[in-house]
Amino acid sequence: MRPIRLTMSAFGPYAGETVIDFDKLGENGIYLISGDTGAGKTTVFDAIVFALYGSASGENRSPSMFRSKYAKPETPTFVELVFKYADKVYKVRRNPDFLRKKLKGDGFTEQKSGCELTLPDGRVVSKKNEADSAILEIMGITRKQFLQIAMIAQGDFLKLLTASTEDRKTIFRHIFRTERFLKLQDKLKADYSKAKEQVEKAQSSMDQYIDGIKCAEENPLFIQIQKAKNNELPIIDVITALETLIKQDENSDKELNSEIKIIEKQLADVNSLLGKLEDYKKLSKELCVVGKAIKSKTDTFEQVKKLLESEKEKFKESEVLNSESAKIKAELPRYDELEMQNKKIEAIHQKLKYDEKSFADQNALLVGKTETLEKLKAEKLTLEKAGENKEKLTSEKNAAEEMMKNLEALKKSLKDYDSMLASLEEKQKIYLEAMNTAQQSLETYNEMNKSFLNEQAGILAQQLKENSPCPVCGSTVHPNVAQKSDSAPTESELKKAKQRSDKAQSDAANASNVCAVIKGKVETAKANIEIQLEKLVGNTDINSSKEKINSLIKEQLEIIKKLNLEIAAEEQNIKRKSKLETIIPKTENETEKLKNDISSLKTNIASCKASLEEISRQLANLKSSLCYADKSTAEKKILEIETKSESLKKSFENAQNSFSVCEKEIIELKAKEEQLKKQLESAEKIDEEEVKEEQNSLTEQKRLKGELRTALIARLSANHSAFGNIIKKKDEINTLEKNLVLVKSLCFTANGRISGKEKIMLETYIQMTFFDRIIARANTRFMIMSDGQYELKRRQSSGNLQASEGLSLDVIDHYNGSQRSVNTLSGGESFKASLSLALGLSDEIQASSGGIRLDTMFVDEGFGSLDDESLNQAMNALKGLTEGNRLVGIISHVNELKERIDRQIIVSKDKLGGSKVKIVT
Q: pLDDT for 899-914, tens place per residue?
């Protein structure tokens, strides 16, 4: 972009219409903008920025402050810029809000801000928003970028040169958009904190398991276990100690068990002795009983002998009965066959009945399963697209929520705008009152001044004489002499009226400035609201927008509510579809199994019916060949015969047994009596009291050992559980710690926290690349300006690994081979270094902005600190900027520059108020 012609009207210190023809300065080279301090040198650049972007170059000057205080009421405030870009000529005219004199009647009215852009083909864009967008598209850069590369502003040189790493980070973050790397650093910090928390949580569980380890205080491992519980022992040592403790306890358990068995054996021996003692007592009693029994049995023997002889005669009848019984018994197996066949028939009947019922039940179940399967498949078909709309619905919901947020913000902006508007109306009333007062005071003063002057003429006229020359005009003829007025004001009264008029004018101007400031805020707010209204509501008047905004908010609430329901339904369909994908195959398997079962049942039923027919035929043949109806009847007859025979036999046998038993008992009793006598004679003599005392001692020992073993088993159980949990948690901690090491490495690398290395963060590292390129570009000028003495260099090491560095700047002094901080440079050297760095930054921003090139640059002040040689060097470096078609304007009041630079824009203050411009080529 190269300006061709700039027109400023009632703008800043320029009261009237001021035109600067940049074409007179040529298309390249250096020119000087010089003049008195405060005359308006920087305002030239402000006007260019305002014409292009609608605001000043500095943040402390708003458009509402552009109205010149020296301008006449009827003079409009505007800036018109004709410029060339890519060999095409454009014209933009822009005005801020200001109060102008009414075209009809008295007083003032507000002139709204406006913008008009004339394109190379003659088309005119008159809407402010459209013109702003068009200029942005033409220039290819924003106002902020334009200021960074087109204007090296007064006082900003040293800031970039001496800035700390942190300050440069902030500057470069906005210029080169490196914030995404800062976000990555923060994300890695969060991931590291989460991984660390997981490890600490797992370690806390591990500590609980270790606290659960049981160890007796007298055990040598007790100290190690306590260290483990106090986190003073590595986990591998904890596991080793716990394994040793478990093995010790297991060995102790075996020893205790062995000791208990020995005691039990000893106790068994003692109990055996006590048993022998009891046996001796029993033998003595038994010998007495046996003697009495022998006497009684001898009497019984004689009676039994007589009974035996009587029963022997009766027993001969039983042989006949036994022959009859044997004949019936021979047929019994055939009765078993009969019963077996009957049972078969009954079993087949039962099975047939069961299979027929099962067949009916399975058929009914198959019908139900088939219907259910069809329904499930139909339902699944309706859910085939389940979930496809969820993402879309979620996106719509997010958009609706964002819309809600923007509408609420717009609603608040409208409320704030109404408050500002009310404040403006109040201040405008105050201004109109002040203006009326000022006009009345001025009219009063003018009338009094006229009367006062007339009075002076009357006093002078009284001294005129005919034929004598007038001291004013020299005439000797006085045809119309002025008359003295009786009501003329005194000079003192006139001065007071002048003071009142001046104060009223000042009050009106102050009120006007207050209105202008508030009006600027109102218009800015209104412009922003109109942009948001256009974006959110559509083509809507600001005054009637509240109801529409409320309606849209209500509408968005309904949309969000509806979308929430639809998303919930979609999620339910997804779950149901997933469930159906499991249920349907299962139901299909169940249906197929039912079909197989029904087929088997059909085969079983046919088989049962055939078997039933064959067995019934066999049963009929068997019944016709038997004497009795069934086995039970035959067995009753056998039982009757055998009972009678058995009774006879039993009576004989009983008598025989009684005889034998009685005889045997007498023999046994006598033998036993003899044996008891011998046992008593050979029995061991035992001390009962001593044996019982030993029994009690062994019993107590067994109890104590048992208690020890119970406690030992409980400890073993607890330690086995702790051991298993520790091993499991150790593997988990190892996995988490591996992840922590990885995340920590990434986090510490990205955030410059690697031990033993410089604290350079990822964002700083990226910015260092840009900074190196800026320094390389800067050194092409700095080497020229310093006559090869100085070269800027990014500091490679801070010397303090705890400091966050990477963007610190040093200077190499090639005269003595030293490298030191840029803060050690003198005032003039600092200016040259700062200017070089600023020019390097400007070049880099242009290069990183898609090759945007501005054909005009401005450098504002800073040359006053340079000596003649340094000034020559700085001029040579700046001349390098003018290669091709670039024009560089230096804004300065340094006299030496006036002598060195022929082409000049000279700004001077006018004694009558305001400033004026003169071009010298």
A: 788 899 999 887 777 8
pTM of the predicted structure, to 2 decimals = 0.43
What single-letter amino acid sits at 92? Answer: V
What is the identity of the amino acid at 691? V
Burial class for 568, CB neighbours closer than 10 Å (0-12, 13-18, 19+): exposed
CB 809 within 8 A of CB 161: yes
pLDDT at 94: 94
Q: Which pLDDT tens digit goes with each residue over 90-105?
A: 999 999 888 877 777 6
Number of continuous H segments (helices) and E segments (strands) in the chain: 19, 17
Q: What pLDDT is attached to residue 480?
A: 63
Could you read off the pLDDT of 289-310 as tens digits, one per residue? Answer: 888 888 888 878 778 888 877 8
Q: In what order do the strands lie in the sheet with 29-35?
A: 151-152, 856-860, 887-891, 29-35, 904-909, 915-920
**Mean pLDDT computed over every residue of the chain:** 82
User: Among positive and negative, which fits the CA dihedral 837, 841, 842, 843?
Assistant: positive
* Amino acid identity at 62: S
First to last CA, the chain: 22
Note whether 777 and 840 are within 8 A (CB): yes
Centre a 10 Å sphere on the Cβ of residue 182 and count the other Cβ atoms it contains.
18
Neighbours of 753 (CB within 10 A): 15
CB 829 within 8 A of CB 790: yes
Question: What's the rounded Cα separation, in Å, for the pair 325 and 310?
Answer: 25
CB neighbours (10 Å) of residue 152?
A: 26
Q: Taking each helix axis from N to C terminus, what angle separates 631-682 and 332-382, rounded to the nearest 10 degrees?
A: 100
Alpha-carbon distance of 619 to 615, in angstroms, equals: 6
Angle at 602 between CA 599 and CA 603, to 5 degrees: 90
Q: How many whole angstroms separate alpha carbon 79 and alpha carbon 50?
A: 8
Q: Which amino acid is at 458?
A: G
At CA 149, angle to CA 148 and CA 155, rounded to 5?
50
- Could you give the C-alpha distances from 710 to 52, 140, 253, 255, in angstroms and in order? 95, 88, 9, 13
468, two tokens: 């004598």
Q: Please, are residues 20 and 917 in contact by the beta-carbon 8 Å criterion?
A: yes
Buried/exposed code over 265-281 (b: 16+ C-beta within 10 A; e: otherwise)? ebbeebeebeeebeeee
Look up residue 465 and give its amino acid.
K
Distances (CA, A) of 303 to 294, 300, 655, 657, 658: 15, 5, 10, 13, 10
Q: For residue 79, which phi and psi values (nearest 5 degrees)?
A: -130, 135
Identify whether the C-beta of residue 504 lies closer than 8 Å to the C-beta of residue 437: yes
Q: Is residue 117 classed as helix, strand or coil in its secondary structure?
A: strand
Name the DSSP letter for residue 67: B
What's the rounded Cα separation, in Å, for the pair 615 and 345? 7
* Contact by Cβ (8 Å): 219, 247: no
